[in-house]
Design a protein that fits this description.
Strand content of chain A: over 45%
Largest sheet of chain A: 7 strands, mixed
Shape of chain A: globular
Order of helices and strands of chain B: EEEEEEEEEEE
Structural class of chain A: mainly beta
Radius of gyration of chain B: 13 Å
Oligomer: heterodimer
Number of strands of chain A: 11
Number of strands of chain B: 11
Radius of gyration of chain A: 14 Å
Shape of chain B: globular
Structural class of chain B: mainly beta
Chain lengths: 117, 111
C-alpha cells in the first residue's frame, strides 16, 4: 500500500492564482482531513470528510474548498491565493467507527509546501 | 488561545540523556495522542492514551495521561539521535470533536 499520497510536493503561486492540492489514500479509510502547518504553530484543521459526498469545515476553512466524490480522493482547492496561505499542507486519513475520533490513528501524507508571493 | 500547551518548545540534548516533554491544558480530553514528525514528512502516531492515570511504554518512551485527563507527558530514556524530531500531542474531546494539536516540542539529540 502506498498509504496517503499528495501532489505536488512543492509549489509557488502568485497572489490571486488558484490551484488544487491532490490527496489520495489506498487504505479504504472513510475519514479524510486537510491540515495546514505553519512554523511553530502545530497543525490546524482546514476541512474534513467522514465519507464520500460529505465534507465539513474545520478550524480554518476560509479561502479553501474541498470535495469528496470518491472514498480515495480528497482534493483541496485554493481559489484566490493569498500570502497568508503560505504553509505546509498535510492530508490525512483514518478508519473511524464514529464513536470518538481521538481513538483513531490518522495516517498522514508527506505534505505539500506552498509559497504564495 | 492555544488549547494544548506543549513545553518546552525546543530541546537540545546529548545522546544518552533522559528527557521529559509536557502537554498541558485547562480542558478535559477523552483521549490524547502523541505523534512524531521528522523533517519533510507527515506526523506518525506513537501512542493513544485514554484512561486517566494511564501509563504506556514503547521501548524507551514512556507516556503518561494525567489523572484528570487534562495533561500528558512523554519521557525518553537514554535518547538516541534517531529520536530527533517534532513531538506533537493531540487531544480529542469526545465523539463530536476533531483532534486538537499542540504546537509541538522540537527535539534535537546530538551524538
Amino acid at each position: 500500500n502506498a498509504g496517503v499520497t499528495q501532489t505536488p510536493k512543492f509549489r509557488i503561486l502568485k497572489i490571486g492564482q488558484s490551484m488544487t492540492l491532490q490527496c489520495t489514500q489506498d487504505m479504504n479509510h472513510n475519514y479524510m482531513y486537510w491540515y495546514r502547518q505553519d512554523p511553530g504553530m502545530g497543525l490546524k484543521l482546514i476541512y474534513y470528510s467522514v465519507g464520500a459526498g460529505i465534507t465539513d469545515k474545520g478550524e480554518v476553512p476560509n479561502g479553501y474548498n474541498v470535495s469528496r466524490s470518491t472514498t480515495e480522493d480528497f482534493p483541496l482547492r485554493l481559489e484566490l491565493a493569498a500570502p497568508s496561505q503560505t504553509s505546509v499542507y498535510f492530508c490525512a486519513s483514518s478508519y473511524s467507527y464514529g464513536q470518538d475520533s481521538g481513538l483513531d490513528e490518522q495516517f498522514f501524507g508527506p505534505g505539500t509546501r506552498l509559497t504564495v508571493l | 488561545t492555544q488549547l494544548l500547551e506543549q513545553s518546552p518548545q525546543f530541546l537540545s540534548i546529548q545522546e544518552g540523556e533522559n528527557l521529559t516533554v509536557y502537554c498541558n491544558s485547562s480542558s478535559v480530553f477523552s483521549s490524547l495522542q502523541w505523534y512524531r514528525q521528522e523533517p519533510g514528512e507527515g506526523p506518525v502516531l506513537l501512542v493513544t492514551v485514554v484512561t486517566g492515570g494511564e501509563v504506556k511504554k514503547l521501548k524507551r518512551l514512556t507516556f503518561q495521561f494525567g489523572d484528570a485527563r487534562k495533561d500528558s507527558s512523554l519521557h525518553i530514556t537514554a535518547a538516541q539521535t534517531g529520536d530527533t524530531g517534532l513531538y506533537l500531542c493531540a487531544g480529542a474531546r469526545g465523539s463530536q470533536g476533531n483532534l486538537i494539536f499542540g504546537k509541538g516540542t522540537k527535539l534535537s539529540v546530538k551524538p
